[in-house]
Amino acid sequence: MKWIETRVIFESTDREFASDLISSLFYDFGLMGVVIEDPDLNPEEGWSEDAVKKPEYDAVTGYLPDNAAGDEKRSILEKRLRRLKAGNNIFTRVLYRKIDEEDWAESWKAYFWPERICGHIVVKPTWREYDSKPEDIVIEIDPGMAFGTGTHPTTALSISLIDKYILKNDSFLDIGTGSGILMIAAAKLGAGKVVGVDTDDIAVGIAEKNLKLNRIPNSSFIVKTGDLAYGVMEKFDLVVANILADVIIVLLDSLKHVIKKRGLFICSGIIEEKKDDVIRKMDEQGLSVMEILSRESWIAVAGRMN
Q1: By the 8 A CB rule, do 298 and 157 touch?
Q2: How many CA atoms, within 13 angstroms, populate the side-chain half-sphere of residue 288?
Q3: 8 A C-beta contact, residue 76 and residue 30
Q4: Residue 34 confidence (pLDDT)
Q5: CB atoms within 10 A of CB 231
């Protein structure tokens, strides 16, 4: 299968905001990840010398299928980019490049470097070197076609809340697991059993590979294909969903079937405009909000089941 690399170069007085808005256009198409180029990004101390050359422009890149559905999405994207210019003074130009699936799976890797998600948790791609500190918990990740690198604010917020609230030997459920990064974080932070569900068979295979890469014992994890929490037959101490707000709202209707009494629910992937809708739905389902975090216009919420 061939793909169209769709690179949106942009100019704006608020570059972070513009980057988030353009990224969300791609996410609306169901993409699980994008490449964000930031000319001002500086590697942290401890990164190896294999870092790539800094990008020349601010840009967001997504990969769309080279078929009729992809043509329609590119047309919609261009219309929405024109609206961003009119409504938000974000000036863009789009560059298209046709690539094979193998090239698509590899091309974004140049932009994925180690990142310290929170105090002692570092996400490191398998193809990079990193000089870790003794207290570091290092998550090795090869997202493959599932994306979910940990560098997006929604994933970083999820990991920060997992780190704060998880208890030793907690059972853990990740709904929409992607590359498996949240399952790995939970396991390394002391969870007893970790379970992941994703609608994509490819993501399930990649998540399993990444769990084994991080030496998570086979006996302590399960990854399976499924739609939200349907088909999950047990209850967990901690449930996490790093997905879109509208999907979280649907998930909350069935959450009681998979979360223990006094269990914790962490949700992320919420834009500011949807925060109140999610919190309202959580309250309706018997969840008391414990903490709300935000980063780069994204929101994550932790709530306790009453």
Answers
A1: yes
A2: 7
A3: no
A4: 78
A5: 10
String of DSSP letters for 157-186:
HHHHHHHHH--TT-EEEEES-TTSHHHHHH
pLDDT digits (tens, 9 = 90+) for 167-201: 999 999 999 988 899 999 999 999 999 999 998 88
What pLDDT score does 143 carry?
65
Query: Are 37 and 151 a contacting pair, CB within 8 Å?
Result: no
Task: Please state whether 30 falls in left (phi above 0), alpha (psi between -120 and 50) or beta.
Answer: left
CA-CA distance, 75 to 298, in Å (whole number)? 26
Tell me the β-bridge partners of 106. none
What is the distance between the alpha carbons of residues 152 and 70, in angstroms, rounded to a whole number? Answer: 24
Cβ-proximal residues to 12 (8 Å cutoff; 6+ apart), any chain:
18, 58, 88, 89, 90, 91
| Whole-structure pTM value | 0.73
Q: Do 14 and 77 touch, CB atoms closer than 8 A?
A: no
Structure tokens at 257: 């079937």
C-alpha distances (whole Å) from 276 to each of 44, 51, 61, 102, 255 are: 35, 40, 30, 41, 18
Task: Kindly list the structural domains of the chain, giving each domain's residue range(s) and its CATH number in brackets, ordered by start.
Answer: 2-111 (3.30.70), 115-305 (3.40.50.150)
Dihedral of CA atoms 170, 267, 163, 15 in degrees, nearest 10, equals 160
Per residue, the 3-state secondary structure of 267-291, as one string, reads EEEEEHHHHHHHHHHHHHCCEEEEE
Of 144, 224, 134, 213, which is closest to residue 177 (Cα–Cα)?
224
* Residue 14: strand pairing partners: none
Instruction: Provide mean pLDDT across the span 55-69.
Output: 87
What percent of the chain clears pLDDT 70, i.e. is strictly above it? 87
Q: Which two tokens stand for residue 67?
A: 């078929």
Q: Give the pairing type, strands 259-271 and 287-295.
A: unpaired
The two three-digit tokens of residue 65, written as one number: 């299928």
